[in-house]
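User: I'm writing a tutorial on reading structure tokens. Could you give me a worked example: one chain, its sequence, then its tokens, then a sentence or two explaining what the tokens reveal?
Assistant: Sure. Here is the example chain.
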Amino acid sequence: MPLIYQNQINNTTKIGVWHITEAEDFFFEKYSLQRSITHPHKRLQHLAGRHLLSMLFPDFPTELIKIADTRKPFLPDEAFHFSISHCGDYAAAIVSTKNRVGVDIEIPHPKIQRVQHKFLSIEENNIIKQVESHGHSLLTMAWSIKEAMFKWFGQGEVDFIKHMQINSIMREANTFIANCTFCKKEIINLKVHNISLEGNNLSWVFTNP
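And here are its predicted structure tokens:
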């Protein structure tokens, strides 16, 4: 079954990851495109994300999803808070009836070393280097943590160094927990969770709305 990860985070919040192995016809039986997507794989990712939302909450009204000017998907009545991420053949989603949420999934890639100065401060780089990873891609983990925060904020115009800071990273079993600060309009402390899943980095964050 392509649902390779599912977690009931709390009474109102669930997260899942779908390994996309199906053809478009599998998804078109239940979902339709709400906008034109010409690239075949991006179209498949889009459909898989909608399917995953319904897997987590069967009553999720995917047909009512709108896209904000910041490209964040949302429901007009906010009956569900949700976030979707795609990477390669994987789709990730987090959904909550109460909490504000953000999710990101990333495939480690060497090119991230060339752009780390754009999203990590010197202090954050030193923090990352101290993490005992056991093969975990640390730079990709840091990027994924900040992407999850970016999607949690959902309003765009965020400086990844100035507005989002990783203060510490702790390891609990197979999960990393990053203590972070988001400080654009106000100072907000966030805990971002990160795990390695089939070679991908999965990060998520949730807070009260």
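What the tokens reveal: The mean pLDDT is 91. Residues 196 and 202 are 6 Å apart (CA to CA).
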